[in-house]
Amino acid sequence: MILPDKVKRIIERLSEWPSIGPRQATRLAFYLVGRGNGSLREAVADLNSLQDIKLCENCFFVHENSGALCNICGDSNRKTSIIAVIEKETDLISIENTRKFNGRYFIIGPLSRLGVLGVWQKNRLDKLKTFIQRDLDGKADEIILALNPTTGGDFGATILVKELSPLANRITRLGRGLPMGGEIEFADDETLSEALAKRN
Amino acid sequence: MILPDKVKRIIERLSEWPSIGPRQATRLAFYLVGRGNGSLREAVADLNSLQDIKLCENCFFVHENSGALCNICGDSNRKTSIIAVIEKETDLISIENTRKFNGRYFIIGPLSRLGVLGVWQKNRLDKLKTFIQRDLDGKADEIILALNPTTGGDFGATILVKELSPLANRITRLGRGLPMGGEIEFADDETLSEALAKRN
To answer: In whole angstroms, what is the distance from residue B157 CA to residue B167 CA?
Structure first.
């Protein structure tokens, strides 16, 4: 083949990234090569610096604090006892942007349409249970299942209701202001605020 | 804002890459963080290795040879005197995949709809002229303007015909088997082979 091995390798690598296909990966590789070594070094340094990023011990969101907690879990103004279970980091950002939620988060990871949790998701769930038992005397005020209104989200909700019922005074889901089949990160702030307000 | 600075910086950086918007950049950043430091280091090493990639002195395609020429320009079986002028590296790959072309390439870069060449494109063109004068005794057998059938490609062709006419026995364009407004890299091999065969 006509391409240098190093270019081929970066194309393969980039193709593994989510929602990047082989064609876009090829374009990106040529873009990176064509930009010259200065900006390539900058990109490498930025990527390298991600190694310092930690995941919050409580909610698994990213942070670079010296302690174990992210900015939200470390914020004493947030209600510890209201926990929104979400699938993705980007969902946290969308919900924060509504400024209508003052509780905390727990990132369970993307929920499979097969209706089962992965091993790492079970481990995360165990940590949530331990947290509720240790820090909330065994009961959260409310657990909001802020999951995508999709098959995966619905299956996940069933599992989570079963697992978490003994550990919460109430378990709610986001109001179905969200269009079925859609995804939280694409909802506008208003729709999402509505869904938060009408949770039931 | 809720995101660590290092994550914000990588999101900004990724947003600058072609055809990656801020939302995809955010997803990619979380993907990279979530993969753990082992695979992050691998990605960094791959990216770093791109610094060794050189551009061919003749055609400006990528290579990692010890000399100044890419695999195609260094291949004595290829006809030196038939030169396909292309806009992008990916166009070279598409044309190579047809196995119908045994000449060589010259990457002029994306042609602007404004109908002017950038300074770096003029520099590249000067190098092509020097090459023809020095290595081909002042005349190429044929220069194929394998440009996209778009406004930019048409304007570029006008410029290139004017600039290169004294330096080639004939200047051809790809047959208009290509749909107008389309792009070379999306053409299937058959259409592209046809267009090569019917060049005029």
So the answer is: 15
Q: Which of residues 38-57 of A touch B (CB under 8 A)?
A: 40-44, 46-53, 55
Residue-wise pLDDT for A57-104, tens only, equals 999 999 999 999 999 999 999 999 999 999 999 999 989 988 889 999
The string of pLDDT tens digits covering residues B163-182 is: 999 999 999 988 767 777 77
CA distance A88 to A86: 6
Short-list A181, A134, A130, A127, CA closest to A154: A181
> The tokens of A47 are what?
């990527």
Residue B21: is its pLDDT beyond 80? Answer: yes
What pTM was estimated for this model as a whole? Answer: 0.73
Q: Is the separation of the CB atoms in B115 and B160 below 8 Å?
A: no
Q: Comparing C-alpha atoms, which of B119, B118, B187 is closest to residue B147?
A: B187
Domains of chain B: 5-52 (1.10.8.420), 55-197 (3.40.1360.10)
Count of H-run helices and E-run strands, chain A: 7, 6
Q: Collect all residues of chain A within an 8 Å Cβ-Cβ radius of residue B26.
A: 90, 93
Test B24 with A23 for CB contact under 8 angstroms. no
Helix, strand or coil, per DSSP, at residue A107: strand
- From the list A13, A18, A29, which residue is nearest B31 (CB)? A18
pLDDT at B165: 96
Contact B56, B63 (CB under 8 A): yes
